[in-house]
Amino acid sequence: MPLPNRLTLASVLCTTCLLGGVAWLATAVAKPPAAATVKLSQVISRADLRLKASAQLDLARQLLETRKSYNDSAKHELPRAAGLLAVIGQAVAEHDAKRSAKTPDTGKPIHGQTLRVAALKLAASKSRSEALAAIPALQAAVDGQAAPNGTRRKAWTGLISLDHIMEELNSRNSRLRRAVRRSRDPKLDARNAATMALLGVVVAADTHEVKQKAQLPAWKKYALQFQVNASATAAALRKGDAASVKTRYLKAAKACAACHSDFRHDE
Prior knowledge:
Layout: H1 5-20, H2 46-63, H3 67-73, H4 77-94, H5 112-124, H6 128-143, H7 162-181, H8 186-205, H9 216-239, H10 242-263
Helix pairs in contact: 1-7, 1-10, 2-4, 2-6, 4-5, 5-6, 7-8, 8-9, 9-10
């Protein structure tokens, strides 16, 4: 049975906002105050990060499988996939939940710093051979078989472009909208919502392109509202609480729509 029209409308507004949000970034501040510390355990679990890292690494391999697939993805899909891997590596490195011991089904813990460094090398690669050379380090990091590489990074900037973030959010929102109506795989849908919430953390922190200080509070407010409600949507999906899934998804969509409404005149 379809949801009420207000959900459909909010979903459309959210999708539009996610695509259009980048345009107003030139209206924010050059030197924002330090972002509040985020407890990543309340955003996405280590288990979800492991599964997303494996999925993104598989995607990178597919994009590099042939010269044609590389050429078709080199300017867009590949750096986007690498950027999300870098975000995942950052999240693992900064995660506040205790690392679980090695188990037969999970393997060794991911090396977050190593994953981040290798992902950034993949994103910066200029040829297929250079990109392929980054894959072993990425696999070793995901498998927990590499020594930590790189210092712990406190900033969330420079991991993925804001354009790619918005594209990731828009793509995932399309799938999540269907899950809100009826989730056929609650665990997968919850992981998708949690990944969106993680990207919300990056958006809130990465204000390096902004120029007008007066716009910063609104940007951070909407990003935080989106992140909190995307995280709550993920939790509700795991619990099978359909009413809460709809409510929280609508609130996340409302944050997107409000952002779009406030800043559309700057497009």
